[in-house]
Every structure is written in structure tokens, then in C-alpha cells.
From TrEMBL:
Keywords: ATP-binding, Cytoplasm, DNA damage, DNA recombination, DNA repair, DNA-binding, Helicase, Hydrolase, Nucleotide-binding. Homotetramer. Forms an RuvA(8)-RuvB(12)-Holliday junction (HJ) complex. HJ DNA is sandwiched between 2 RuvA tetramers; dsDNA enters through RuvA and exits via RuvB. An RuvB hexamer assembles on each DNA strand where it exits the tetramer. Each RuvB hexamer is contacted by two RuvA subunits (via domain III) on 2 adjacent RuvB subunits; this complex drives branch migration. In the full resolvosome a probable DNA-RuvA(4)-RuvB(12)-RuvC(2) complex forms which resolves the HJ. The gene is ruvA. It comes from Oikeobacillus pervagus. Has three domains with a flexible linker between the domains II and III and assumes an 'L' shape. Domain III is highly mobile and contacts RuvB. Belongs to the RuvA family. This is Holliday junction branch migration complex subunit RuvA.
Length: 203
């Protein structure tokens, strides 16, 4: 079982990165691949979850150990698989998810792809009060209170971000609804993804 892998990012796509470690390229699925730039070539550490089924062996990677632990907790909920858990984590705002669970905010949780009322309720039942040991730094504040078409004049970064949002499970209709807002910005791919997720969670 892997805990983490250190290496350089050799490829970044909408769904995964390829991390080179001593000449071996590991395909690693991650919530926001474009958070791991392949341009700087500096060594990166990715915390790894190894998912094994009869016909699948996949690696899931995270920038922090807290993200990995929350991913594992989400997988324990009936109705949430690895793809759904990635989509929930892709906003880069674990505290928002934790806050929604602790406050029993079903409507917020249902904004994620593949999360209906039943799954949102199950997340609350299974995880409420059980996340403080994973992300204690978030808790003091919490308790006080279809394919995407390429457009000629659109930036490469925005196109990459839209493909990444589609890979997370958002529909073409949902993505098209927020695209005009994103086109007004000039951001990196990672920033477009985060901004897009913020818009999608407000639809």
C-alpha cells in the first residue's frame, strides 16, 4: 500500500497526472490535475490511495494528507465511489464540505455530481461528528458559526478547465451555464477550475 509518491509531473490531463518516480510513470487520478503543474519540473509529493477491484487497480493522489483522509471517509459512505469523492474534493475547499455535513446542509451536498438527496442524507448520517480528527484545523471556525466544444478565442487554460469539470461529472448544460462568467476572467487552469466549481455550487 502506498502512502505517498515523490516525483516530477510529466503529464497533466483533465482526469489524471503522470508522476515520474525513478523512471516509472505513475498514472494518478486526482481531484484537480491542473493544481500539479508539469512546467516547473520540481519534485512533488502526492499522497496516494490505492483502489483495487477485480477489474481495476487505480491510484488516486492528493496534495495533502487531509484531502486523502477525507477521500477515504467519503468512500465509506454508501452510494459514493471514487469518482464521486473526487468531484466533492475538487473545489479545494474541504472545510465547505465538512461544514455542510456538520450543519446537515443537504441542499449544498446535492450540488455535487451524482449526489442526490439519499446520498446527501447518508453522508450526514455516516460522517457527522467523525471528521474532526482528520482536519482539526478547520473545525474551530466551523463550530462557531455532452462534450465541451473548443472556441477559437478561448484560452487553452479555460478549455482545459472545462474538460476537467466535465471529467468530474458535471453536465454539458451546467458547464455551459457558467462558461460566460469564466470567459470574463484571465486565470490559470487550476484557478479556472476552482472558480468554475464555486459557480457550479451556486447554481
Amino acid at each position: 500500500m502506498f502512502e505517498y509518491i515523490k516525483g516530477t509531473v510529466e503529464f497533466t490531463g483533465p482526469e489524471y497526472v503522470v508522476l515520474d518516480h525513478q523512471g516509472i510513470g505513475y498514472q494518478i487520478l486526482t481531484p484537480n490535475p491542473f493544481a500539479f503543474s508539469k512546467d516547473d519540473q520540481k519534485e512533488r509529493k502526492m499522497y496516494i490511495y490505492q483502489h483495487v477491484r477485480e477489474d481495476v487497480l487505480a491510484l488516486y493522489g492528493f496534495a495533502t494528507i487531509e484531502e486523502k483522509r477525507l477521500f477515504e471517509k467519503l468512500l465509506s459512505v454508501s452510494g459514493i465511489g471514487p469518482k464521486g469523492a473526487l468531484a466533492i474534493l475538487a473545489s479545494g475547499e474541504p472545510e465547505q464540505v465538512i461544514h455542510a455535513i456538520e450543519q446537515e446542509d443537504e441542499s449544498f451536498l446535492m450540488k455535487f455530481p451524482g449526489v442526490g438527496k439519499k446520498t446527501a442524507r447518508q453522508m450526514i448520517l455516516d460522517l457527522k461528528g467523525k471528521l474532526q480528527d482528520i482536519v482539526p484545523d478547520y473545525f474551530p471556525d466551523l463550530f462557531q458559526t455532452g462534450k465541451i466544444e473548443k472556441v477559437a478565442n478561448r484560452s487553452k487554460e479555460l478549455d482545459e478547465a472545462l474538460l476537467a469539470l466535465e471529467a468530474l461529472g458535471y453536465s454539458t448544460r451546467e458547464i455551459k451555464k457558467i462558461t460566460p462568467k469564466l470567459e470574463k476572467e484571465s486565470l490559470s487552469t487550476d484557478e479556472y477550475i476552482r472558480k468554475g466549481l464555486q459557480f457550479l455550487l451556486k447554481i
